[in-house]
Structure formats: C-alpha cells, structure tokens
Amino acid sequence: MTEPQILVPGATIGILGGGQLGRMLSVAASRLGFKTHIYEPGANPPAGHVADVVTTAPYEDEAALKAFADAVDVITYEFENVPTSALDLLDSVKPIRPNRKALAVSQDRLVEKAFLSELGLKVAPYAAVDDDVDLAEALVEIGAPAILKTRRFGYDGKGQARIMAPEEADQALKDMAGAPSILEGFVEFSHEISVIAARGQSGDISCFDPGENVHKSGILHSTTVPARLSPAQRTDAVLLAAKILNALNYVGVMGVELFVTSGGLVVNEIAPRVHNSGHWTQNGCVIDQFEQHIRAVAGWPLGDGKRHSNVEMLNLIGDDVDRIPEFAKDGAVAIHLYGKTDVKPGRKMGHVNKITGPA
Amino acid sequence: MTEPQILVPGATIGILGGGQLGRMLSVAASRLGFKTHIYEPGANPPAGHVADVVTTAPYEDEAALKAFADAVDVITYEFENVPTSALDLLDSVKPIRPNRKALAVSQDRLVEKAFLSELGLKVAPYAAVDDDVDLAEALVEIGAPAILKTRRFGYDGKGQARIMAPEEADQALKDMAGAPSILEGFVEFSHEISVIAARGQSGDISCFDPGENVHKSGILHSTTVPARLSPAQRTDAVLLAAKILNALNYVGVMGVELFVTSGGLVVNEIAPRVHNSGHWTQNGCVIDQFEQHIRAVAGWPLGDGKRHSNVEMLNLIGDDVDRIPEFAKDGAVAIHLYGKTDVKPGRKMGHVNKITGPA
C-alpha cells in the first residue's frame, strides 16, 4: 500500500458533487479545520452555502477540472456517477479517495454483483441483459417476479422496472431505453439493514452499528438504530462490510445495504460514499459518518463508531418538509435541512434524527 | 412585545463578526436550511469558510453596512463591541437580535453592574473610575486586592490590571490609557460556573445545565458539565439567568458567568451571544447553543436544553493545537477547529469536547 498522506488543518478537500451529502461533508470538514471546494455542474448547489469555494462547470470542462484539481489537496465525491473521462483527468493531478476501483465496481451493477460474488458474499440471483433474447433466457433462469435495472446511473429507484410475470418483459426492456441492463431476482427478506463502514489510509476499519432501513417508492424512508439483529447477525454484517473494504483497498466511508434472510445476509448494493442510511450518526455518535469520511480521506485516525444514543432517522421527501414546525417543537428531534429552494415530489429536502433513548 | 418574525428555510441570517463563533453559528444555521452572510472587517475570517456570503468592510463603511442589511433577513452578532454608529444604521433597515438594550448593557461594565444590581442580583463591589481621585476613593471603599478594568472593549483578560496593594494604583491607571474604567473588588468564590440561557421571540426561556469553568491567564481553559452545584444552587443559577433575559426582553442565547460563593451566586459578567463556556453543548445535546441562538433569532421554538452526555470542553489556545493528533486518536473526543492559519500565543485555535459518560 502507498504511504499515508496526512492532511493538516488549513488544507482543502475537493468534493465532486454539491448536493446534501457534499453539504454535510463540508460542515464536517470545517470542524477539523479543513476548507472545501465543491465541483458541481448545477447552479446554486446546497453544498455551496457552506463551502469555501464552488466551481460551477460540467464534468466535460477540462480546464475547470484541471483548475479544481490544482486548487485542492485531495479529491473525494458525494456520488458515484462521475464520468470516467473526468476521473482520468483529476486522477492525474491529485489523489482521489475512495479509489477508482471502488468507483468502477459501484458504477456498474453487473460488475458490482460479480465482485461481491467472487468475494464469497451472497447477492440476489442476477444475469446480464442487453436484448430481448438475454431477457427471455434470464427470466427462465431467475424466474419472475424480478427487477430489470440499468447497469449504470440508477439511484432512488430510477432506471428500474419490475417484471411480475413474463408478459411484462417487453415493456420493462423498453423502459431501459437500450441501456445495458441486469435482471435481478427477488430476495425473500425479513428486513433491510445497512452498515456504514469506514477504512482509513493505514488499513484500520471502523463500522457504525447497523441501522434498519424502510423504503417507500424506492426511496429510503427511515433508518432506525439499533436494527433488529441477533448478535451473530450483527457480527456477520460488520465482518462482511470489512471484507468488501479490504478487497477494494478502500479509503473512506462506504454504505453497504444488506437483506436479512433466513439463509443469512444478502448484499443488496454498496455505495462508495457517505450514505443516507448513515445520517443518524450525526446525532447518535461523537464522530459522525461525514467526519469519519473526512478523517479517512485526510489520513487521520478514525472514530470508533460508538453510539451514545439510539436514533430514528426520518427522511423529509417533497412535502414532508411542511412538517418542520411540528418537528421543531420536539426537543428530542434534530433537524437537518439541505437548503434546497424548490420542493418537488420525491426530492430529498432534509431529514430529522429523533433521539429515542441512550444506547 | 412585537409580533414574532418567523424565518423560513432559505432565509439569510446576517452575522456581525467572522470569528469562530460566527463560524459555528453558520454551521448551525445551515442545519436549519438558512444561509448566512458574514460582515467582518478582517480578511479571511474563519466564518467565511462556511458562510454563503462574506462582506469584508470596516464598521465605518456605511454603504457596505447598508448593502449587508438589505441582503439579509435578520441581523445577529458574535461579539458585543460593534460600534454604536454601525448598529444605528443597521437597526434602521433590519431587526437586530439580541436587541440594542442587551448590547448597550453588556458593552459597558459599569452599566452592566448597575443593571444587574437593580435587578436585585449580587455583583462584585464596584466603583466608576475616571481619574486618580476616583481610584483613590474607590480603593478606600472597596479595598485591595481589586481589579481595574476598562468599561468598554475588554475581553479575555485584556484591558485589565490587578491592584494587589494601593501603591500599584498609579501603574494600573496608566494601563487603562485614559479609558473610562471601573474598579471591581475581589469576590471570594469556590468556583465559577456559567449558564447558557436562551429566550425565544415569544418569551419562552430554555437553559442548558450550568458548566463549571476554569480560567488560565484570564482565558477560559475548560468547562465541565455537570458543574459542582447543589440542586438549590442549580435552580438559583437558572432562575437568575431567566430574570436577566426577561428584564432585557432578550432574544437569543446569552452566557451568564457566575461565582459560586458561601453567600450565594454572584454574577461575574454577561455576554449577549453564544459563549465559549457553551461549546460543550455541541456534543452533549441534540440542539446546541449555536442552533439554539439561530432558532431564537429566527422565531423558531427553542430546544429544551436537555443533555444526553456529560462533557469536558477544553480550549486549544496557541500551541495547544499541536495536541490534535493525540486528541484525534480518542474516540470519545470531538475536535472543533476554527480554520485559523496563524498560531499565536493566547489565540483560540479550537476546542475539544470529551464525552465523559451518559448524563
């Protein structure tokens, strides 16, 4: 492994993406005395309100990318769908953490599934689908119901089509609009959990206690900590996450979503970044997932992941944000808003962390 | 009282002063979806790294003050020594919270002592000193040892001279450089505490549990929560703070420093702003003093001040910041650095909050 690069306070952390994750990463970086520089194609990004510098430019603007890389000490990202050409350019100037391998794996559902399977981890049955012949074969092998997903650029339920019966296959394939896809079988699970795991530059690993997730319409609705897990399941979850991080020589925080089944834990997906299901750590831990990520990227020691309080995290999606006056009256509720001006259905506007008691 | 003015997310809070308090106020404001606009005469202010907009201009620049006031929805401040002329101008454009009365009282040690005395609260014996005749009389009345302080613009032990015996009076008076001053008698106390108290726009009051302060060389060294106090003393402390806030029709967070003496609590001084001795709340409470202040200023309900953890806050003064690598290894320690580039003796570079157990 390479020599750890330790950033001292005053250094600048470059963040690709200026959404709410970048916003909360910026705040965490400020606590450690770092400045942040956001690179974001969209105007008025949420992270910009709390960042030292914002570059507004597309990922195809080579001059802007170069200037950004020159201005920062290390580069990290808040989402995994950064174009490869941009990464190639940035990579030649400053280190990107988490590394390119983690990005390559998580940018493609098929590559990700193959990687996890090779590690000996359980995943949903899957098959690559590029056309109607592939899909017909895959449906025979995996059966319906199943979900057809684009291999790349999917998030929050986008780029997905359920196939409840074989006759729905044609429509599902049309929904993919010709994009290389993957058919995934359904997994019978009792509930979903996620492990927010971190790995430092010296290879040390620290995991927060798994949270239990509830999704609605394909979007995370709530995360509750602690999750319903036996001690053995809890240990399995953490060891499994550590295995993934080690295999990738990973540096930073990763979100690992797992299905709890009667046959053990099945990996749903991994995200090479801070994760919505880890927002509870802001009010449950001394060092939250955002600071943990910054610490890893900066070569600092990791927090121990210990929890002082139990928490229920509730996402505020679209109109949910109208409930803020109600939440503001509850002294056990911490409000986290993202500074987004327009309320849209399905848009993540903020979240609340309700303290439910001491850990 | 005037109609509460409730700010909705997306509004901009103007902050006079761009130091560490402004920095942490900005971060707290971001959690509630507010933007901040910092007004600061000095270049590269710590708060600027996490603020949406920074105005760099002196308090005598009327055009800059006017533009700042026009651009924000409400004005607050991180320190009390803003010139009156600037406040007059700002006040005519946008509301200033906490109000002018709180500023007027706390900007002048003599006015403050008189105000507290009139409220029936105990303060150190004091007398106004404008010249050597006043000082001689005051020393007869109050006795030595005593402390001569400038009435205005003192902080962190600056603008103060101890008089251990009457023959030191001349030198002490010279140290004041002709500034109107106040002689304060020594108070025999066992320890010092402070109450971080908040009052909302609707008159509701919420106090954090008192912390116990230790000063070194006139600068706060540490605050420990809980403080050593009997239940009766704790109640006295909180009621006393509430009395001050009500008398000022105060909106925002105030730091109230108290001496614990055999004869009861004696008010040392009040600060009409978030206070160094309240930094522990960042890691001990769901809603910290910074968010509490923003909530009050924005007309939101206050947090209840409840503590989930016991905390020891330690200031990092000057070279103390070299201990960061050591602190970073302790999972019970939260680091808070201020983004200041130059380390100078006596300069507050950051603080750490060590969790010592559940509350």
TrEMBL record, chains A, B:
Pathway: Purine metabolism; IMP biosynthesis via de novo pathway; 5-amino-1-(5-phospho-D-ribosyl)imidazole-4-carboxylate from 5-amino-1-(5-phospho-D-ribosyl)imidazole (N5-CAIR route): step 1/2. Gene3D superfamilies: 3.40.50.20, ATP-grasp fold, A domain, ATP-grasp fold, B domain. It is an enzyme of class 6 (ligase). One of its GO terms (cellular component) is cytosol. ATP binds at residues 109, 149, 154-160, 184-187, 192, 215, 268-269. It catalyses: 5-amino-1-(5-phospho-beta-D-ribosyl)imidazole + hydrogencarbonate + ATP = 5-carboxyamino-1-(5-phospho-D-ribosyl)imidazole + ADP + phosphate + 2 H(+). The keyword Ligase applies. One of its GO terms (molecular function) is ATP binding. Its EC number is 6.3.4.18. Coiled coil: none annotated. It comes from the Bacteria. Keywords: ATP-binding, Ligase, Nucleotide-binding, Purine biosynthesis. Residues 113-298 form the ATP-grasp domain. GO terms for biological process: 'de novo' IMP biosynthetic process. Homodimer. HAMAP family: PurK. Belongs to the PurK/PurT family. Catalyzes the ATP-dependent conversion of 5-aminoimidazole ribonucleotide (AIR) and HCO(3)(-) to N5-carboxyaminoimidazole ribonucleotide (N5-CAIR). NCBIfam families: PRK06019.1-1 (NF004675), PRK06019.1-2 (NF004676), PRK06019.1-5 (NF004679), purK (TIGR01161). This is N5-carboxyaminoimidazole ribonucleotide synthase. The lineage of its organism: Bacteria, Pseudomonadati, Pseudomonadota, Alphaproteobacteria, Rhodobacterales.
